[in-house]
Amino acid sequence: MTASVVSHEGGRDASLEIVDVEGSVTENIDTTIPAGRMMMQMVGSFAEFERAMIRERTSAGVAAARAEGRVGGQRPTLTEAQRRGAVRADGGAA
């Protein structure tokens, strides 16, 4: 299921279209009425909550990896000896 926000001319009014897997529109939320605005706020709150949960799980995973001695990031492409050789070939500049 996907959701998309469609803005109407004028800027303030928008509607949310919820689309299922087959692509048919299952529901429109009219944001010009109080119930529609409340629904949009609820959808936004759930999205914010889910983002916070993802951030929390990611932080916990990174902390667990560090506790096991793993370090994130890209592995160095040059060995220490290759780096020293590159510095000497460049005239000593770092």
Give your account of this protein's structure:
With 94 residues, this protein is an alpha+beta fold. 47% of the residues lie in helices and 19% in strands. The chain is elongated, with a radius of gyration of 25 Å. The mean pLDDT is 79.
Give a short synopsis of this structure.
By secondary structure, the protein is α+β, with helices and mostly antiparallel strands. It contains two helices and three strands. It has a three-stranded antiparallel β-sheet.
- Give the radius of gyration: 25 Å
| Number of helices in the DSSP assignment | 2
- Distance from N terminus to C terminus (CA atoms, Å) equals 52 Å
The strand line-up of the biggest sheet is 1-2-3
What structural class results from the helix and strand content? alpha+beta
In the predicted model, the low-confidence regions spanning at least 5 consecutive residues are: none
Shape category: elongated
Strand percent estimate: 15-25%
Would you count the extended β strands for me?
3
| Helix-strand sequence | EEEHH
How much helical structure, as a percent, in the residues? 40-55%
Calculate the mean pLDDT score and round it.
79
Number of domains: 1
Q: How would a crystallographer describe the biggest sheet?
A: 3 strands, antiparallel
